[in-house]
Amino acid sequence: MLEVKGVNTFYGSSQALFEVSLQVREGEVVTMLGRNGMGKSTTVKSIMGITPVKSGKITFMNQEITKRSSHEIARLGIGLVPEGRQIFPNLTVYENIIATASNYRSVREPYRLDDILVIFPRLGERLKHFGNQISGGEQQMLAVGRALMTNPKLLILDEATEGLAPILRHEIWKGLQILKGKGLAILVIDKNLEPLMKIAKHHYIMERGKVVWTGTTEDLRENLKVKTRYLGV
């Protein structure tokens, strides 16, 4: 579904990504792991056309998207939950959810408000609250719901549960488990390794702008050396 091949990305004259390659197959949950500042978010921005790729190739659903604009990439079926959530603070939860509703791919059964509230029931209690009146965890649920309203084939989450209370992290993971069951492909960045290994099939570890390790959940569970060296666990 998504293939990133040999991507090099720069910020000005400073190179941030070095020959980054990864794949996400249809219906698969994949993670990008690594300490802060290792290039994970830059990889996401490169995929989404936010940060221009200098060389390499990115394809999605057999279409090259390397040089496409962000809105074109989104319309092809990639939904982004950005780091920091970036919800609209002066819109209500209800308005935030429906603001992005679209069905550019003519999905037979598109997501509706009720579908989002089944996945994240807590949002149903907050529909009239403004975006800046709800907790960080609720904002993250809202950001996921907003992305789902675009009816993506692939959902990308940058720092899925960073800074959230354990009970709210659990609700996020539960929601992602539901989406996995629906067959949605997910690429997720997070630091909470154990919950990730319960839902993800394949993992990529980044260090200093490079993919330094890739393998299955079983491989990662058995490789204490890799976890200690690159993840600090």
Order of helices and strands: EEEHEEHEHHHEHEHEEHH
Termini, distance in Å? 31 Å
CATH topology: Rossmann fold
> What kind of sheet is the major sheet?
6 strands, mixed
Number of strands: 10
User: What are the low-pLDDT stretches, counting only 5+ consecutive residues below 50?
Assistant: none
- The helix-and-strand class reads alpha/beta
**Mean residue pLDDT:** 95
Give Rg in angstroms. 17 Å
CATH class, please? Alpha Beta
- The helicity comes to 25-40%
According to CATH, the homologous superfamily is P-loop containing nucleotide triphosphate hydrolases
Percentage of β-strand residues:
25-35%
DSSP summary: helix tally: 9
Sequence of strands across the biggest β-sheet: 6-7-8-3-9-10
CATH-derived architecture? 3-Layer(aba) Sandwich
In short:
With 233 residues, this protein is an alpha/beta fold. The chain is 34% helix and 27% strand. The chain has a single domain (2-231), classed as Rossmann fold (3-Layer(aba) Sandwich), CATH 3.40.50.
Could you please describe the fold and organization of this structure?
- Helix 3 (93-99) packs parallel to helix 5 (136-148).
- This protein has helices at residues 40-47, 70-76, 93-99, 113-119, 136-148, 166-181, 193-199, 217-222, 224-231, and strands at residues 2-11, 14-24, 29-33, 53-60, 63-64, 78-81, 154-157, 185-189, 202-207, 210-216.
- The strands form two sheets. Strands 6-7-8-3-9-10 form a six-stranded mixed beta sheet, with helices on both faces. The chain has a four-stranded antiparallel beta sheet with strand order 2-1-4-5, covered by helices on one side.
- The chain is α/β, with parallel strands linked by helices and 233 residues long.
- The chain has one domain (2-231): Rossmann fold (3-Layer(aba) Sandwich), CATH 3.40.50.
- It contains nine helices and ten strands.
